[in-house]
From TrEMBL:
Residues 11-314 form the D-isomer specific 2-hydroxyacid dehydrogenase catalytic domain. It comes from Pseudarthrobacter chlorophenolicus (strain ATCC 700700 / DSM 12829 / CIP 107037 / JCM 12360 / KCTC 9906 / NCIMB 13794 / A6) (Arthrobacter chlorophenolicus). GO terms for molecular function: glyoxylate reductase (NADPH) activity; hydroxypyruvate reductase [NAD(P)H] activity; NAD binding. Belongs to the D-isomer specific 2-hydroxyacid dehydrogenase family. It comes from the Bacteria. This is D-isomer specific 2-hydroxyacid dehydrogenase NAD-binding. Pfam families: 2-Hacid_dh (PF00389), 2-Hacid_dh_C (PF02826). InterPro entries: D-isomer_2-hydroxyacid_DH, D-isomer_2_OHA_DH_cat_dom, D-isomer_DH_CS1, D-isomer_DH_NAD-bd, NAD(P)-bd_dom_sf. GO terms for cellular component: cytosol. Residues 111-283 form the D-isomer specific 2-hydroxyacid dehydrogenase NAD-binding domain. Keywords: NAD, NADP, Oxidoreductase. Signal peptide: none annotated. PANTHER family: 2-HYDROXYACID DEHYDROGENASE YGL185C-RELATED (PTHR10996:SF178), 2-HYDROXYACID DEHYDROGENASE-RELATED (PTHR10996).
Length: 316
């Protein structure tokens, strides 16, 4: 077992935090800017491993302030907050927690899908307000089964979403950087082509520099006033201002969003809209899945400390 010096970046699940503190003597990076700068000036060269989560990550400046960093262990499948380009250039290895959260994130996508099309959350508010008594029936909604669904990013999570929606008799098409082997779904050459050919566009693409603003005004316009957008990936994949404008002007039929550009801030305009379902980034948020993510995070750290390898490394 190697002697490793572990830096904790951002809060972590108690079970992870306790283990890295007790078993590896991890030190928490201070939150305040000044304390952080002073801490890094004094101790930045000490750490060879950083344990963090998708919410915080090891960004460009922090990574530069850790000259002897060798590994970043990330709690979460998404690692867009970590500067992987710098990491790979410097030979720093990075792990994430893939697969263990596919079910729960896909379940969340399907929940948003049904909710937005059928108006479930809006109908719940209708009952609670007493409108059923005073106004009569809830307005008719849109059928969820049998729709054309486009999946942007047919990776691990995208594939599970597609499989779930096959059970709803949906016709699935997708766009990824390249056609995916072993699937029968129709491949669209661009996000715009995908949006033009579907009723509901589900964003399941990884965040990061390669996907920022992929869903732009053109894609949203192609989806159109009877179209719906679901995002369980990262807020950055969608041009959020364009999305808000389209929802306000009726150019888009509705949206189901678990992720936003500047979480936990949600654009004020969205709070007023009945055709939008808003969730607080809870895709993987179940006891079972978070426990599995914690286990995998700790397994990566253990493996690194034993032989310098990672169980689930991110590939450049
Ligand atoms: C977590 C996520 O909420 O795995 C991811 O990429 O977005 C979520 O599962 C997040 O990573 C926890 O910080």
């Amino acid at each position: 077992m190697k002697n490793i010096a572990v830096l904790q970046v951002g809060p972590l699940m108690p079970v992870v935090q306790e283990s890295i503190t007790k078993d590896y003597g991890a030190v928490r990076l201070p939150d305040g800017q000044e304390e952080r700068a002073e801490f890094l000036g004094q101790h930045g060269g000490t750490f060879d491993v950083a344990v963090t989560s998708g919410k915080f990550g090891v960004g460009t400046d922090l990574m530069r302030a850790l000259p002897n960093l060798r590994a970043v262990i990330n709690f979460g499948v998404g690692y867009d907050t970590t500067d992987v380009a710098q990491a790979f250039e410097r030979g720093i290895i990075v792990s994430n927690t893939p697969d263990v959260l596919n079910d729960c994130v896909a379940d969340t996508a399907v929940a948003l899908y049904v909710d937005v099309l059928r108006g479930i959350s809006a109908a719940d508010r209708f009952v609670r307000r007493g409108d059923w008594l005073s106004k009569g029936n809830f307005p008719l909604a849109t059928k969820a089964s049998g729709r054309k669904v486009g999946i942007l990013g047919l990776g691990r999570i995208g594939k599970v979403i597609a499989r779930r929606l096959e059970g709803f008799d949906c016709e699935i098409s997708y766009h990824s950087r390249n056609p995916v082997a072993g699937v029968d779904y129709r491949y669209a050459a661009s996000p715009r082509e995908l949006a033009a050919g579907c009723d509901v566009l589900i964003v399941a693409a990884a965040g990061g520099p390669g996907s920022t603003g992929l869903v732009d005004t053109g894609v949203i316009d192609a989806l159109g006033p009877r179209g719906y957008l679901i995002n369980i990936a990262r807020g950055s994949v969608v041009d959020q201002d364009a999305l808000v404008d389209a929802l306000l002007s009726g150019k888009l039929g509705g949206a189901g969003l678990d992720v936003f550009v500047d979480e936990p801030k949600v654009p004020q305009d969205l709070l007023e809209l009945e055709n939008v379902v808003l969730l607080p980034h809870l895709g993987s948020g179940t006891h079972e899945t978070r426990a599995a993510m914690a286990d995998l995070t700790l397994a990566n750290l253990r493996s690194y400390s034993e032989d310098g390898s990672l169980v689930t490394p991110v590939h450049p």
